[in-house]
């Protein structure tokens, strides 16, 4: 099994955090993973995207022209990267920041109000983690438990936020079930 994923949005939306968490969780689960970040000229507010490949076997290259899953955190990202999603792929759209619609019928699309869900949880900062939960549910590449183990290690310096992250993952999974 190999899963090629592109996560894209504005700087500050946690795009790189999603990619890093997936890479760490995959490696911890005994899989192979690559993480290739790309930044725009600015940090916050500029463009940011990363490509993550998770595989049961050795990965030849971190870059790919076609992807299995796109996580679009905003409208410009959906517009720019939707053509890279292969036929039969999955597109996860942060509906709170994107009113654009997927204009393809050969992909499976999900609109997740991630910012709204994060606000209901109590912290807008976990909108990216809501999207991560949606990805876990749709890809099947990692389990919720494997991801939470990684979240505890990588984001555990602020234990008061761990519960927000756990709930955010769960809400993302539930929303796409």
Automatic annotation (TrEMBL):
InterPro entries: 2-oxoglutarate_synth_KorC (IPR052554), Pyrv/ketoisovalerate_OxRed_cat (IPR019752), Pyrv_flavodox_OxRed_cen (IPR002869). One of its GO terms (molecular function) is oxidoreductase activity, acting on the aldehyde or oxo group of donors. Residues 11-174 form the Pyruvate/ketoisovalerate oxidoreductase catalytic domain. Pfam families: POR. SUPFAM superfamilies: Pyruvate-ferredoxin oxidoreductase, PFOR, domain III. This is 2-oxoglutarate ferredoxin oxidoreductase subunit gamma. Keywords: Oxidoreductase. It comes from the Bacteria.
